[in-house]
């Protein structure tokens, strides 16, 4: 009987993201029946696409046991550079996108250098670069909003085979990340480092290389997420990207990625986490909840994500110990 209960509890803990998503979606659907409409779900996924892309990048870093608080500022600098290139040098959208991604990659590389080479604690290193990148962005733009042409905003409203372009990009990134994490040497190394970095070193894993790759990918995906966002908004103002780092972390953790490293997946975990964050936001609007309460509720969700992550890991460890059999 206890064995069956343990298996059931373990199954529930491992599928917490799905259970939480269905619960919240059902609650908002009951409060506002129109929330169950397919269009509402499609809009939620579309609006969650940019946070989802950033959360995928954040997943690589979290899996190594690190964190990147600079992704929101990375978004701002990367998209600002792209927008200014279009405005001042009339470059094509393709060239601007490549420049945006290169900037994001460079900023991610600097984070990797600080964490891996200089061994600065990830929280401290990326907190510092979060402030620095924001300052660089404000200096480049003179604190003015950077407007993007119709060629860019058209990407945000375009469809591919009837599916909104942002969703398609999100799906491609998730598929690529899933393959990278589950079917490549780098993916196995990332999980091994997060599980126990000393054991990974003893096993002959080049831990520094895998950590650098994680931060570089995080920076790259932050820039791409920023470009997807401006394609939907049409501009990047001085506050662009602020707070998105916390939403990305919350999306990853709500999706089952452990803050302690070594556990989690991009699919369905991070996808559900990102959509869940947007579902809550859309649900609060649909239910006509006071706008001033939205930040408090979002903060509560982030706290809940961390609490669930801690409880889940503790309980799963207890269950795994309970299932160990001692041979006589």
What kind of oligomer do you see? Answer: single chain
Spatial strand arrangement across the major sheet:
1-4
> Quick one: CATH class?
Mainly Alpha
Based on secondary structure, the structural category is: mainly alpha
* Biggest sheet record: 2 strands, antiparallel
At CATH level 2, the architecture is Orthogonal Bundle
Given as residue ranges, the uncertain stretches (5+ residues, pLDDT < 50) are: 324-328
Fraction of residues in helix: over 70%
User: How far is it from the N-terminal to the C-terminal residue, by CA?
Assistant: 24 Å
Strand content: under 5%
Overall structural domain count: 1
Helix/strand order, N-terminal first: HHHHHHEHEEHHHHEHHH
Number of strands: 4
Mean pLDDT: 87
Q: Report the total helices.
A: 14
Radius of gyration: 20 Å
Shape field: globular
CATH topology: ABC transporter involved in vitamin B12 uptake, BtuC
Characterization of this structure:
The protein is mainly alpha-helical and about 325 residues long. It has one domain: ABC transporter involved in vitamin B12 uptake, BtuC (Orthogonal Bundle), CATH 1.10.3470. Helix content is about 75%, strand content about 0%. It has 14 helices and four strands. It has helices at about 1-15, 15-30, 40-65, 70-90, 95-115, 120-140, 150-155, 165-185, 185-195, 195-200, 205-235, 245-255, 265-285, 295-320, and strands at about 145, 160, 165, 235. The strands form two sheets. It has a two-stranded antiparallel ribbon with strand order 1-4. The protein has a two-stranded antiparallel ribbon with strand order 2-3. Helix 5 (about 95-115) runs antiparallel to helix 6. The protein is globular and about 65 Å long.
């Amino acid at each position: 009987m206890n064995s069956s209960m343990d298996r059931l509890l373990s199954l529930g803990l491992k599928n917490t993201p799905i259970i939480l998503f269905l619960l919240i979606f059902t609650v908002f659907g009951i409060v506002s029946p129109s929330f169950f409409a397919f269009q509402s779900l499609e809009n939620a996924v579309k609006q969650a696409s940019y946070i989802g892309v950033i959360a995928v990048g954040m997943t690589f870093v979290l899996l190594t046991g690190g964190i990147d608080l600079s992704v929101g500022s990375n978004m701002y600098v990367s998209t600002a550079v792209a927008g200014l290139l279009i405005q001042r040098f009339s470059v094509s959208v393709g060239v601007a996108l490549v420049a945006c991604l290169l900037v994001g990659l460079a900023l991610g590389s600097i984070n990797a250098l600080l964490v891996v080479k200089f061994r600065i604690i990830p929280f401290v290193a990326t907190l510092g670069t979060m402030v620095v990148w924001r300052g660089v962005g404000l200096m480049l733009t003179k604190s003015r909003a950077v407007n993007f042409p119709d060629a860019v905003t058209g990407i945000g409203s375009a469809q591919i085979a009837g599916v909104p372009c942002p969703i398609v990009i999100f799906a491609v990134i998730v598929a690529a990340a899933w393959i990278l994490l589950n079917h490549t040497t780098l993916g196995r190394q990332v999980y091994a480092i997060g599980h126990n970095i000393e054991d990974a070193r003893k096993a002959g894993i080049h831990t520094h290389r895998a950590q650098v790759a994680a931060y570089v990918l995080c920076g790259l995906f932050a820039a791409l997420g920023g470009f997807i966002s401006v394609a939907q908004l049409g501009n990047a103002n001085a506050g662009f990207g602020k707070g998105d780092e916390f939403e990305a972390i919350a999306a990853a953790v709500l999706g089952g990625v452990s803050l302690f490293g070594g556990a989690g997946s991009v699919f369905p975990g991070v996808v559900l986490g990102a959509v869940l964050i947007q579902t809550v936001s859309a649900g609060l609007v649909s239910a006509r909840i006071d706008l001033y309460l939205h930040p408090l509720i979002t903060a509560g969700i982030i706290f809940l994500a961390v609490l669930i992550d801690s409880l889940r890991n503790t309980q799963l460890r207890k269950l795994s110990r309970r299932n160990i059999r001692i041979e006589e």
